[in-house]
Amino acid sequence: MRNAIRILILSLMVMGLASVASAHRYHTSVTRIEHNAEESLVEITVQTFADDIEAALSKRTGAGGVRLDSSAKTNALLLDYLRNVIQLKTGDAGLELQWIGMELKGHSVWFFLQAKAPEGLSRLTLSNRLLFELFADQVNIVNVVKPGKRASLVFKRGDTVKSMP
Question: What is the pLDDT of residues 106-141, one digit of tens each?
């Protein structure tokens, strides 16, 4: 009886872990880009699945088991990764993304970034290849917010640079 209970508990734990591992069947991110005219900044918020980002960082570093722990080391890895996959440019000049912070909410993670953009959003181009190296079906939605106007861009694997709407 005691062994049967142990087997039952172990089975439930394994099933629970399996359901967490396959918690989502789609691969997407949502990014919001807004110009802060007072500060001459582009403010960027990125939301995606925490486990996907951990997998991307683990693959990038070659070290398994990277966790989003808000340490200085992890934040530096994240910023380097995000600078590589999300690029804003004015002509040939890239805007340097600056780290503001990160917030974990359940299975989701939110990244907060900014970049100096004295001319606003109108002349910017954007590339968003977040998680394309992991998932062929990855879709990155970018919502651009301007005074009195909202527009969206959608990036799928194979897409390159797009102009801000």
Answer: 999 999 999 999 888 988 999 999 999 999 999 999
CA 86 to chain centre: 9
pTM, 2 dp: 0.83
Three-state secondary structure of the chain: CHHHHHHHHHHHHHHHHHHHHCCCCCCEEEEEEEEECCCCEEEEEEEEEHHHHHHHHHHHHCCCCCCCCCCHHHHHHHHHHHHHHEEEEECCEECCCEEEEEEEECCEEEEEEEEECCCCCCCEEEEECCCCCCCCCCEEEEEEEECCEEEEEEEECCCCCEECC
* Distance separating alpha carbons of residues 53 and 153, to the nearest angstrom: 21
Domain boundaries, the chain: 25-163
